[in-house]
Design a protein that fits this description.
The protein has 317 residues and is of the alpha/beta class. Helix content is 33%, strand content 22%. The structure holds zinc ion.
């Protein structure tokens, strides 16, 4: 049961069509006339906006913001997409934009809507880049995610996890030719394996799901950890950021303010509920309800977020 407002495909397309589009891949098949539209949010940074939905057979898990960065000598993919078909469309769009080699595929964290398109890039033999903890978390979850996605999309279209070939412990850099991307492996926050990308050349931060805008965040790591990492990211040398979900680009650090407010309320109200002796079930139906009208998919995720926060905070008293 869900009370969320779903964007129709037509609305999503219209929204996409209003972007200053630089890449548009239209599949040849009559069965699938959908366009894959990217926006150049900064010179050489091309982002496809995911739809604000959960995965369905219709949206093919194209629900996260994904894209690519072009340097003088090479291309880096920053999140390969939510399914094999999503990744294939991204790859075709890259090939229309440039013939430079795809040398890196950055996998921002374990969630399938960001990385299950990775198999579409194996033919390019890139470095698949991930947080040092990504292999362990993939080992625990990838099979579950794959089966669930195959149930929704079918085996041929689902894709799956690719093992990272380059692991980031704290910080690392990748050079696309006159364009060095800084990679940061974060402490447990949205998940336990969040990797962000900083493009100093254009002053653009790509924090993936460390930043949600308009779509309610989902907490799958640590509430306190996320608040800490978000506070640190705000001082990144960036004037824009690309959220993992929401618009393709927001001002930075201003674009962090809604997420910061939500996480702060989640912390405060969950702590308050625990202090009053409220049980988890009652907390789930009351905590952060003042935020309900401010976020898409609120009813699908807030209860889970409260549960996560409750479990994390109940031992702190
Ligand atoms: Zn995520």
């Amino acid at each position: 049961m869900s009370t969320r407002t779903q964007l129709t495909r037509r609305q999503a397309l219209l929204e996409g069509a209003s972007f200053c589009s630089v890449g548009a891949f239209v599949p040849k098949s009559a069965h699938d006339a959908r366009a894959f539209v990217t926006e150049e949010v900064a010179p050489g940074i091309h982002i496809r906006r995911g739809v604000d939905e959960d995965v369905t057979a219709q949206n093919e898990d194209a629900i996260a913001n994904i894209g690519f960065i072009v340097g003088r000598d090479a291309v880096a993919v920053i999140d390969p997409g939510g399914s094999l078909i999503d990744g294939q469309r991204l790859r075709a769009t890259i090939r229309q934009a440039t013939q430079l080699p795809i040398k890196y595929v950055v996998m921002s964290h374990v969630h399938p809507d960001h990385i299950f398109g990775a198999p579409a890039f194996q033919q390019d033999h890139p470095q698949f880049v991930g947080h040092a903890r990504l292999p362990r978390t993939l080992a625990l979850r990838a099979e579950f995610y794959r089966k669930r996605l195959e149930d929704t999309l079918g085996k041929e279209r689902a894709g799956g996890a690719v093992a990272p070939t380059m692991l980031v412990q704290d910080h690392a850099e990748i050079d696309l030719g006159d364009r060095v991307l800084g990679l940061t492996a974060h402490g447990t926050a949205h998940t336990d394996c969040d990797l962000s990308v900083m493009d100093r050349y254009s002053g653009t931060l790509l924090p993936a799901d460390l930043l949600f805008v308009q779509r309610v965040p989902s907490l799958d790591g640590s509430l306190r950890g996320w608040m800490k990492e978000l506070a640190a990211l705000k001082s990144a040398p960036a004037h824009r950021a690309v959220p993992g979900h929401g618009p393709t680009s927001v001002k930075w650090p201003l674009g962090a303010s809604d997420l910061e407010r939500y996480l702060g309320i989640l912390l405060r109200e969950t702590k308050g509920a625990i202090a009053k002796g409220t049980d988890l079930e009652a907390a789930v139906s009351t905590v952060a309800q003042g935020e309900r009208s401010r976020w898409k998919l609120f009813d699908d995720y807030n209860g889970h977020n409260v549960t996560q926060a409750f479990k994390e905070l109940e031992w702190e008293q």
